[in-house]
Every structure is written in C-alpha cells, then in structure tokens.
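Problem 3 from the worked examples.
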Amino acid sequence: MLNSNENYKILDISDCKDSAKGTIEYLNHILPELVSSGLNVIVLGESHGNSIDNDVTKSILIDPPVIHTDVTRVVLERKLDSVYASISNKMTSRIEVSDPNTDGRRARSAIMAKKINQAFGEDQELIYLVCGYEHAAEVYEDIEPTFKKKLKFFVKPSSV
C-alpha cells in the first residue's frame, strides 16, 4: 500500500470508522476542503459486504459532498452496480468495470485505472471510484503519467 504523499492521500477515518454516520459527516466536511479544480479521484474503499462501508458509500453516492458540474463520473468495481443502484442525478455518468474474462485483483485494478484514464480523456474531472480498499494503490499506479501530474487522489479506507 502506498503511503500518503502530495498527490495520494489516505484519509484518516480512525476516529469515526466505527460509525457510518460519523464517517459520512467526516467525508462531507473534509472532501470539499481537499478536492480542487483539475483532476481528482475519490476512492470509496470498502470491505465488500461490510454494513458501515456500504452505508457510507450509498450516502455519498446519493448526496455527494463534492460535484464538478457536468464532469463527475462514478466508476464501480464489478458486481457493485447492483449494490449501489442509486446515485445522484448530478453525476454525469456511471460505469461498471466488468470483464468476465478477468480474474485476480491486480487485473481488475488495471481495468479500473483504464476506465479512469478514459474518463479523464473524455474531459471528466472528478471520479468517485467504488471498490475494495486494496485496489486503491494499484489503480493509482496505473493512472497515465500525463494525468497523474495534475491528479489529486483521495482514499477513504475500509472501516474494517
């Protein structure tokens, strides 16, 4: 796992991780302060099936604390499109990363990064990425260097 640096920041949810409400309040407070103009990725990392993570992600996708009008996209790891069927109508679009021929976490991370690179190439500026927490660093590593230079990448870790 990468350590936080200038462009890659793991959010500290240690004081609120035992409560969906507390984590949501924290994200609603901190994300508007952190997200800037330019390219941003907000990873809503989770441990699949964890009720706190699920409640946090559902809340953030329905009422996002940050929206860049007409340039905000949601990218969902495979099979999460049914878990998070409802998203804010302020989101420009949503994409599920699904490839039935892809096995292994690293391969799925590469596909998610490809979808983010594609979104940036289509002038999207803010991406909410919903995936298992372990994918975050791998996805970041696979962001194209031209995008990575101007990217802010924020990771909400799993509450577990």
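Problem 4, a separate protein:
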Amino acid sequence: MVKTSLIRRITKDSIDKILLLNKYLTSDDSHMLREEFNITSNELTHALAGHRDLGLVFNLQQEHETLSFDWSPFMHRVILKNDVVSKLDNVFINESCSKVLLLTTKRLLKVDIKKLNEKIDLVNEAISRYNHHIERERREIEHELLPKDL
C-alpha cells in the first residue's frame, strides 16, 4: 500500500479556467465540459436552473509531491455524483479526480469556494486516516520481521 498526498486548499492560483455559462459559452468550453466532466448540454442547462452563470475549473494540487495522488476513492465518498444532475449540484469532479468544476454566481463565489474547501478538508481527513493506517501496518511488519537486537 502507498501513502496518498493531501490536497491543497483551493486558491486563486488553483484556477485553470473561468467559464461564462450563459450565451457566451463557447463550443470549445461546452466540449470540454462534456469530455472532461461528463456533463451534457441538457445536464448543464438543468444545473444552471439555479441562476448560476459562472463556472470555475480548479486544478487540484498535491500537498506532498512525492506521494501518490490517487484521490478517487476519497473524493467519491465526499463529492457524490448523482445519476441525474439536480439544480442543487454545483460541484463536479473529472474522471481522474485532478480537477473540480464549481458552478456558482459572482455573488456566491466566496461562499461556494469556502464550502468546496470544507469538502476538500473532509477528503484530507479521510486521506490522513488512510495514511495513518498504512504507517501503523508498516511499523507492525517491521517490528515482526526485524531481529530484536538491531
């Protein structure tokens, strides 16, 4: 088993792309949403029914570059993907769990980023528990295998 890196909290530096989700949404942006986040035009329209007009794509960054960044098992427990997109859904993760899409409004931007960081904190708590478990197992194996006089 390999330890997993924690995820850095979202900051301005994490922004990969800003999307205007109204009549200015380009076909390239629409294609990116479909390909990277598996969101169809109909699902996007439904999610935007809550008057969201801004999409922010954030790159998730590792806290420790030397550790694994397979966040998938942890992310999917905290950020649940519904079979049907609801107008309450505003956070989406891509397939590799390396990016997050946040649908919001200019007015709610700070609040939604704060909530997203709270979700990242929950993911990091799960990762920390997992890493602690791995470290404890490693110490137990070392204790059993190494001679006592070393």
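Solution to problem 4. Residues 73 and 97 are 9 Å apart (CA to CA). The radius of gyration is 19 Å.
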